[in-house]
Amino acid sequence: MKRIESRSALQTALRPVWAAGRSIGLVPTMGYLHAGHLALVDRARQENDVVVVSIFVNPLQFGPGEDFERYPRDLERDAALLAGRGVDIVYHPPVADVYPEPPEVGLKAGRMAAGLCGRSRPGHFDGVLTVVAKLFHRVRPTRAYFGEKDAQQLALIRRMAFDLDFDVEVVAVPTVREPDGLAMSSRNVYLSPEERAEAPVLYRALAWAAEAIRSGERRAAVLLEGVRTRIAAAKTARIDYVELVRWPDLRPIAPAAKLVPGETVLVAAAVFFGTARLIDNVRVAVPPA
Amino acid sequence: MKRIESRSALQTALRPVWAAGRSIGLVPTMGYLHAGHLALVDRARQENDVVVVSIFVNPLQFGPGEDFERYPRDLERDAALLAGRGVDIVYHPPVADVYPEPPEVGLKAGRMAAGLCGRSRPGHFDGVLTVVAKLFHRVRPTRAYFGEKDAQQLALIRRMAFDLDFDVEVVAVPTVREPDGLAMSSRNVYLSPEERAEAPVLYRALAWAAEAIRSGERRAAVLLEGVRTRIAAAKTARIDYVELVRWPDLRPIAPAAKLVPGETVLVAAAVFFGTARLIDNVRVAVPPA
């Protein structure tokens, strides 16, 4: 496994791969890897000749007052984990390699970034799309792997690839969870023992909504209120948002609306437990009447 | 010369070129070709194995009330001109091929699009950058050719390639002019005989400024006022803007400022003659004291 820090070294390593037309799987991460990341890596390993994992905490996607500085980092641990998974290249550039100058031109998402996390984190997805576009150009992957936990990110990256004609297949990998249902996240490390004990309420509430939809509930207001009430029962929880949107276009479903049979909907939430802002979602096909 | 209308046919034609690692020169145009375009094509022909010319009037870069509908088009004439220049592929897609759905994700320029034409045409350069990024992805050119007449566009496309790590060399080609100095433009066709007779005042005024700078004039206000006065002498002219900026970062130079020896500056103007909005510019290295 090669560890590479610069764009030019990355090019040198990948040039023969490009020339030979071998397939490349890219797993973009911010590091501090957990089982969710490793599921992406394993899938990439199965499907490609060469696997590249990038580790880069992207300042462009953090807003003022967010956790860019304290975001957990442990490159040695990450590298050891990846070496055991058959990864070919770990690309872990410093900020100056990715942004030699503050960017003047970047990516910009429209309506699809207006709700969900985009509302709480203005500019976040523009920063995500900009760095992913750069990584796509630097690595030229055949396939790129993203987790379903970050559903809005996944939908936007797919849409970016479609709108801008990137020649890359965006592969979605299911969320990996702790035994009690909590979605794996590098930010779980922020949780105090009490918060950690309560955090699974997020997934339990969303799973309740999924089951209610499968059982015939169509009233958006009932679903939203049910999720909110269940989360609010945890005393360390503070809800950022609970939303219902269509998948994959992320069109909002108003509380007064009813779900349409045959459509796929996303029930998504962001909840603070102490200072940790955790997100999760479930995707459900609305059953026929 | 192949004439191609669809993205998939373009891929089919280019796949063997990509696989063989042959160089590709791309000349993106909106058609209605003139000698300025042909200079780009000739340069591309000299420097590359394969030359692709795109002809696409991009709706995304026209604002409401601008001339998208009446922009001149003559594909047969364009194709005949290009066949005589050794072009390999003319790609002239319909709007639905380029934008199968209205884009949700696009390119966005910051400060560099705030002045000059960007001030008069909000969103224009975002539309330009978005379509150029798409063409770069569809064609994968080794080099792409742009005219210096569209100086802000040139600076922004170069900056986009730098900021987003496109692996393409952006080649600038000098402005081609009529014998009386008027810059070649597809929009010159809008000019009435009287307007056409007066339009060369635009370049004469800018050329005066270039000469004044070379002769030691450093006062921005004197240069700006000199250009404005010369243009305003033409009775069919209506000035949109006259600006002085640094090249290539397009930082504005305030009227009260003095030019700095050693810097390169751009004197740029947009002027309406009747309904035709014409632009032109000169680039000058400020001589040492």
TrEMBL record, chains A, B:
UniProt-annotated binding residues for (R)-pantoate: Q61, Q153
GO biological process entries: pantothenate biosynthetic process
EC numbers, comma separated: 6.3.2.1
GO-annotated molecular function: ATP binding; pantoate-beta-alanine ligase activity
Binding site for beta-alanine: Q61
Pfam families for this protein: Pantoate_ligase
Keywords assigned: ATP-binding, Cytoplasm, Ligase, Nucleotide-binding, Pantothenate biosynthesis
Compartments in which it is found: Cytoplasm
CDD domains: PanC
Reaction(s) this enzyme catalyzes, per UniProt: (R)-pantoate + beta-alanine + ATP = (R)-pantothenate + AMP + diphosphate + H(+)
GO CC list: cytosol
InterPro entries: Cyt_trans-like, Pantoate_ligase, Pantoate_ligase_C, Rossmann-like_a/b/a_fold
Matching PANTHER family: CYTIDYLATE KINASE/PANTOATE-BETA-ALANINE LIGASE, PANTOATE--BETA-ALANINE LIGASE
Subunit structure: Homodimer.
More about this protein: The reaction proceeds by a bi uni uni bi ping pong mechanism.
Family designation: Belongs to the pantothenate synthetase family.
Protein name from the UniProt record: Pantothenate synthetase
